[in-house]
Amino acid sequence: HPAQLGLALDEILANAILASRRAAKVKLCATGDAEEVRISVVDTGCGMTPDVARRAVEIGFSTRGARGIGLPVAKFIAYHHCGGFHLDSRPGGGTTATMVLPVGGV
After folding, report:
1. Average pLDDT over all residues of the chain
2. Which of 51, 62, 83 is nearest to 11 (CA)?
3. What is the layout of strands, in order, in the sheet containing 36-43?
4. Could you write out the three-class secondary structure of the chain?
5. In whole angstroms, what is the distance from residue 43 CA to residue 31 CA?
6. pTM for the whole structure
7. What is the per-residue pLDDT for 98?
């Protein structure tokens, strides 16, 4: 479902851009093998504590007073496609959001 995967990636990218300092770079990386594709978005924002990173994929949670549905939607779409979703973040060190998707779809 390309449109769903596009939406998930849009949400992750938008979150990374909003979290990053003005004029900072957001990096999009993709790797894969015969079984899976890993798509990562790396930002240079302020990062998150472990508790905030866990809650960042809960519907309605936001540290910016926003609607808080972007990352939960991305996680749901990745899981719907039999994949995975992971946030790696540390305060002051930025965040990497990764979707892991099986090759060949569901």
Report:
1. 90
2. 62
3. 27-32, 36-43, 95-102, 84-89
4. CHHHHHHHHHHHHHHHHHHCCCCCCCEEEEEECCCEEEEEEEECCCCCCHHHHHHCCCCCCCCCCCCCCHHHHHHHHHHHCCCEEEEEECCCCCEEEEEEEECCCC
5. 18
6. 0.88
7. 97
pLDDT tens digit string along 28-53? 999 999 999 999 999 988 899 999 99
At 76, the pLDDT band (50, 70, 90 cuts) reads very high
Q: Quick check: 40 and 97 in contact, CB under 8 A?
A: yes
Neighbours of 98 (CB within 10 A): 19
Contacts of 66 (CB under 8 A, 6+ apart): none
